[in-house]
Design brief:
This protein is globular. The chain contains seven helices and two strands, in the order βαααβαααα. The protein has about 150 residues and is mostly helical. Helix 2 packs across helix 3 and helix 2 (about 45-65) packs antiparallel against helix 5 (about 105-115).
Length: about 150
């Protein structure tokens, strides 16, 4: 079985925009950013996340692409992943997304990214399971039973 995955750029957090930026404070622009910020906190916090962005930027520089392209390519290279779902808010995003297929990561690229990922602390379990805990940090931001309200 292979997976079709989304969230490869963590709602935009895995992008050049956030490299070198101070940790954002709540409330964030939308629930998606709030959700991914919780994952970043579980990952190891903003400092470790910045280390990941720096590693992704180094790899991106070697391939003349952006951080988001490398983040998506990294996930696409996993053997269990068949495809990634990406968004494009504007023409520049579309152009960058088209480069995902052309990037070929080297062993050195994967090692640089992997060295940071090896330092991660979490999340503690499957993110979807964390979101099902309605009293937990992840679950409290979710909206449940939206289909019932529509019927």
């Amino acid at each position: 079985m292979h997976l079709l995955i989304y969230g490869t750029v963590a709602g935009g957090f895995l992008g050049d925009r956030w490299l070198g930026q101070p940790e954002p404070e709540a409330p964030l622009e939308n629930r998606s950013l709030t959700k991914y910020k919780l994952v970043i906190d579980d990952f190891g916090g903003w400092d470790l996340f910045q280390a990941l962005l720096r590693a992704l930027r180094n790899v991106a520089d070697r391939h003349s692409v952006d951080i988001a392209t490398i983040a998506s390519r990294t996930m696409l290279d996993r053997p269990q992943v068949a495809a990634v779902i990406v968004g494009a808010r504007n023409r520049e995003h579309l152009i960058a997304n088209l480069k995902i297929a052309a990037v070929k990561l080297t062993d050195a690229d994967r090692a640089e990214i992997g060295a940071v990922l090896a330092q991660r602390q979490g999340p503690e379990g499957d993110t979807f399971e964390l979101e099902r805990d309605r009293e937990g940090r992840h679950g409290r931001i979710m909206k449940y039973n939206l289909s019932r309200a529509a019927s």
